[in-house]
């Protein structure tokens, strides 16, 4: 009987490993953006750049506040995830691209597979 339990554990472990590896084979994409400046509106684009820097500064302050709050309460790990650099960059870069388009610039995107491509 002990042998069957051990055999079942190995079978279950094998299924878990196969499931884990199959999830790892899902393609991962990255989006790259190309910005084409309008012939005029340089002041507008410059304002977008200033706003982007202000966005990064504001997000860094929010992150520092969140870290202090979590340090004091030690219970909000999910909230900390939203202040990781990739999320901060995504928010501020999205804002910048919208501003750029509002100034008359063109934003084109292209998705490229970077992992698990076929």
Write up this protein.
The protein has 118 residues and is of the alpha+beta class. The chain has one domain. The N terminus is likely disordered.
Low-confidence stretches: 1-6
The major beta sheet can be summarized as: 2 strands, antiparallel
Number of strands: 2
The topology string of helices and strands comes to HEHHHE
Overall body shape: flat
Helix content: 55-70%
- The structural class is alpha+beta
By DSSP (H or I, 4+ residues per run), the number of helices equals 4
Distance between the termini: 45 Å
Percent strand? 15-25%
- Rg is 23 Å
Q: Strand order across the biggest sheet? A: 1-2
Q: What is the number of domains?
A: 1
- Mean pLDDT, to the nearest integer, reads 77
Question: Which short descriptors sum up this protein?
Answer:
118 residues; alpha+beta; two-stranded antiparallel sheet; 4 helices; flat; disordered N terminus
Topology:
Blueprint lengths: L1 H22 L4 E9 L5 H32 L3 H5 L3 H18 L3 E10 L3
Antiparallel strand pairs: 1-2
Q: Would you kindly provide a brief summary of this structure?
A:
The protein has 118 residues and is an alpha+beta fold. 65% of the residues lie in helices and 16% in strands.
